[in-house]
Each structure stands twice: as C-alpha cells, then as structure tokens.
Amino acid sequence: MKFNAIRLFNEDGKRVSRMVEQTLSDLDPGDVVIKSRYAAVNYKDARAVTGVGNVISRFPCVPGVEVAGTVVESADPSFRPGDVVTVQGGRDFGMRRDGGYSEYVRVPAAWVGRVPEGSDGFDMVGMGLAAYTSALAVDELLRRVRPEQGPILVTGGTGGSSSFAIDMLAGLGYRVVASTGKTSEAQYLKKIGASEIVGRDEIAGGDKPLEEQRWAGGIDAVGGAPLDALLRSTRKRGVVCAFGNAAGEELRTSIYPFILRSVSLVGINGNHPVPERGEVWARMMPGGDLHPRHIADICHTIPFAGLQAHCDKLIAGGVRGRAVVTFG
Ligand SMILES: NC(=O)c1ccc[n+]([C@@H]2O[C@H](COP(=O)([O-])OP(=O)(O)OC[C@H]3O[C@@H](n4cnc5c(N)ncnc54)[C@H](OP(=O)(O)O)[C@@H]3O)[C@@H](O)[C@H]2O)c1
Question: Hey, what CATH topology would domain 129-267 get?
Fold first, then answer.
C-alpha cells in the first residue's frame, strides 16, 4: 500500500519538508495503524513544516502532533479495526517519532486515545492541544480569580489556543479583553466571547515597571514584550498564566509586579498524551464546564495538499483561529 506523507529532511543543515510517497514500512514501528481523517495545525507544527527552529530533533521525520482517524490494524487488544481514535501531544509524536501529517499513522497503543461515541474525531482534533492547554490555564484562573474581580486579558487573541481561552473564559462569566495584532478581526473576537479588543501595543499604558492596574488576570500565548506589559499592568494579587512564545522566547521584566503587587506568573505545559489528560480533558467534552461553545467558528478545514502553504502563512502571522487538515 502506498500513501502520501510530509517528511522533514535535514539537508546540509537546512530543514526542508516535502510531500513524499510512503509505505507502512517507512513509518516508525508501533502497535496501532490508523487511517488519518483529520490533523491539526499548531504553531509548533507550522514551525516544523517550514523548518523554523528546532521542533523536530530527528531526521527524516513526519511532523504533525495531532491526528484523528480509524484504526486499520492493532497488535494491542485494546483497539480493534474500525475504532475512531486520536493521537495528540506527548513528548515524541511528530517531533522525534513520525507524526500525523501522513495518510496512515503508526504509533504505540499507549499514545492512542478514544474518540467519544458519535464523533468522527473533528472536534477532538479541532480542540486538541490548543484548547487543552488553554483549559489548563483557565482552570488555574478559575481557582484563583473570580469573574467579579475584573477583566482577564488574553494575548495573541486570534490564535488557535487564545481563541479557545477567550471562548471558555466568556462561557464561565469572565469579562475577556483580547489583545491582537489583527484589530480587523474584532468581529470574530467578539463573536467567540471577547468584550473588548486592544492592540498588541496597548496592553499597558506606558513602559514604567508598574503601570495602571487593569487586569485581574491574564492568559498569555506569546511571551516576550507583550507578557512583560501584561505583568506590569496586572492588578494586585492577579494571576497570569503563560504558555507561548510567538512574540519571543525571552522575558525581560522587573521584580516589582511580583513583590509590590503579589502578581503570580504560572507556567502552563499542555504536552500530555490524551490517555494522561484526566479531569480537565473530560471537562472539555460536551456538557462540561470547559467545553468551548464556538468550535465551528474557531476551526476551519484545509486540504492535506494545502498544508505547506498554510504553514508559511501561519508563521507570517496571517492566520485566524485553527486549521484542521482533512485527508482525502
Ligand atoms: N506550553 C504548551 O504546552 C503549549 C501548548 C500549545 C501552544 N503553545 C504555544 O502557544 C503559542 C500559540 O500557539 P497556537 O498554536 O495557538 O499558535 P497560533 O494559532 O499561530 O497563534 C499565535 C498567535 O500569536 C499572535 N502572534 C503571532 N506572532 C506574534 C508576534 N510576533 N508578536 C505578538 N503576537 C504574535 C497572533 O495573534 P494576534 O495576531 O491575534 O495577536 C497569532 O495568531 C505558541 O507559542 C505555541 O508554541 C504552548
């Protein structure tokens, strides 16, 4: 059987991805073979496909950290042909082991999660790592900041993860302010739950170590200067959850938000395979308090053949929401 996959090669130190024809024996070994139906495009997937940074640390490798599809064979009795399943996150899938940008995927059974009855996997991949990571951040805020304490700022507002954070926070009764570099997307941001939109450069009033106290809390998907601005303008005892680096890997700030306003900065890591996601993932399912209400507005589909062009656009900052790749 022959099928298509995107593979990233290291050619004389340059990372180059190509659509190639494969057979199962080209893929890394595993217990379960899945015919792919949907795969997501995260920021790190776009970096991998375009060869930016070092998301992939083994060559050649199939990128793509999330996929859903149907089991075609399994050496593990937990799964049978026809089961609808998803593989998402974990330390290796799509980074050090062949991932989801392939019409067939082969993985260890321990990485495979079941898709709830009645779903073809679209919503599971649509939410995926983006919504799960945001849900971990929202859960942290829920424990520490009440909606009546004031607005929550979400940075990188139109991004996949941030869109889900806005949706979930609004659903829980928080007043959400979205910061964005695409103010032309105000209508989209309001539709998914933002009450107010601010430009990327308007998070804090100025550049003093402490600025006007505006935010009861924050969810930050971008790091760098916007995270510093968020910390400087967070209210006393506010909580900021950070999980991203789209604006930069470095954080330069001062000690004053922490020692004069008791602001907390909480790091969030969502790279857990589905079988290990536990209670927060369960609460994201329909009926749960963290279930996003706007999956259809946030997610849009792209064909597998259009994935490489889409990744170029995402890295250039020109994408809204979250793309879900559909396989033929
Ligand atoms: N820690 C974890 O476990 C974890 C899990 C998932 C994601 N992440 C990280 O979270 C971040 C977002 O991921 P994603 O998949 O949601 O990406 P995404 O869909 O590409 O969203 C990123 C958003 O950040 C904003 N942005 C892009 N470049 C920027 C820049 N130079 N300066 C300021 N803002 C910029 C843009 O929103 P606006 O135009 O609206 O400002 C963009 O839509 C990434 O850094 C990713 O690596 C981490």
Answer: Rossmann fold (3.40.50)
